[in-house]
Amino acid sequence: MSADPTPVSDSPFRSDPSTRDEAPQFVLPLVVRIERADPPARTDALETAARAVLTLLADERSAGDGEWARAVRDWQDARIRKVVRRARGAEWRRAGALPGITVTGKSAEVRVFPPVPLDGWPKDLARLQVSGTDLDDPQQPADADPDAVVLWLNPELGMSAGKAMAQAGHGAQLAWWELSGPERAAWRDAGFPLAVRTADPARWSALTTAGLPLVRDAGFTEIAPGSCTVVADHPALRR
User: Fold this and answer.
1) What's residue 219's pLDDT?
2) What does R_g of the chain's alpha carbons equal in angstroms?
3) Which parts of the chain are beta strand (E)?
4) Looking at residue 14, what is its pLDDT?
5) Confidence of residue 6 (pLDDT cuts 50, 70, 90)
6) Cβ atoms of 41 and 106 closer than 8 Å
7) 221 Cβ contact list (under 8 Å, min separation 6)
8) Do 219 and 225 touch, CB atoms closer than 8 A?
9) Quick one: DSSP state of residue 97?
10) Residue 85 pLDDT exceeds 50
């Protein structure tokens, strides 16, 4: 397994002061399509957002001399921020005209864009709302496949769907970093199968102490700094 390129003491997902705070700050924009008459299911939106992050990381434009590579490197050198905004109708069409990748789930559509400076959002994205991403699951999600990556959410935290989408993206990114090159390629070629589920309260403590990739939120929005939000689990991550 490849090592996480980010030392634990300097993780972009920790709230502690870090040299990362001194670097120019970037954000990864994600836009979820929420039409009034046909909103996506919450879990599908979370899973689609996580796959969108992975799709951008695996895209050839994000590596080497690719057109997005410098922005991705600058973003990963600082605090890794993701912000989810919502769009519908003409807003969604305008967002779709900007450089990015649209990932589709069972009911959800999420468009991910290359990182932008914290104060330099394109105007067609900056005008979109962050609030209003409260979504529901019409049916209880099925049990997660134990052979796939599972992003376990903290059962003690109440997060809006938008916040949870960003946290799921963080967890997927940590899992991506931890996997070896062949494991990443196999995951990519399979279409990034994964599940997002809320952990059973009795199991959450064991998950957070199992040495698995763990997201500690920096506390910019909604929850307290240092809160454990997501644990990424997979057989390859337990080795």
Assistant:
1) 66
2) 17
3) 26-33, 81-87, 101-104, 109-112, 116-117, 149-153, 194-198, 214-216, 228-233
4) 52
5) very low
6) yes
7) 163
8) yes
9) T
10) yes
Q: Which amino acid is at 175?
A: A
Rounded distance between C-alpha atoms, residue 128 and residue 92, angstroms: 9
pLDDT tens, residue by residue, 92-144 = 999 999 999 999 999 999 999 999 998 999 999 999 998 766 899 999 999 99
**What residue type is 95 in one-letter code?**
A
| Signed CA dihedral, 160, 165, 149, 172: sign only | negative
pLDDT digits (tens, 9 = 90+) for 208-236: 999 999 998 776 677 777 889 999 999 99
Q: Please state, in angstroms and rounded to a whole number, the distance separating the CA atoms of residues 179 and 116.
A: 26
- pTM of structure: 0.89
Q: What separation in angstroms does the CA of 203 have from each of 67, 105, 170, 172, 231?
A: 43, 28, 21, 20, 11
Read off the tokens for 147. 């052979």
Handedness of CA 24, 179, 114, 221 (dihedral sign): negative
- Find, among 203, 197, 229, 194, the residue nearest to 214 by Cα: 229
Distances (CA, A) of 29 to 87, 101, 189, 200: 12, 11, 24, 30
Alpha carbons 21 and 23: distance in angstroms, whole number:
6
The first and second tokens of residue 102, run together, are 């649209």
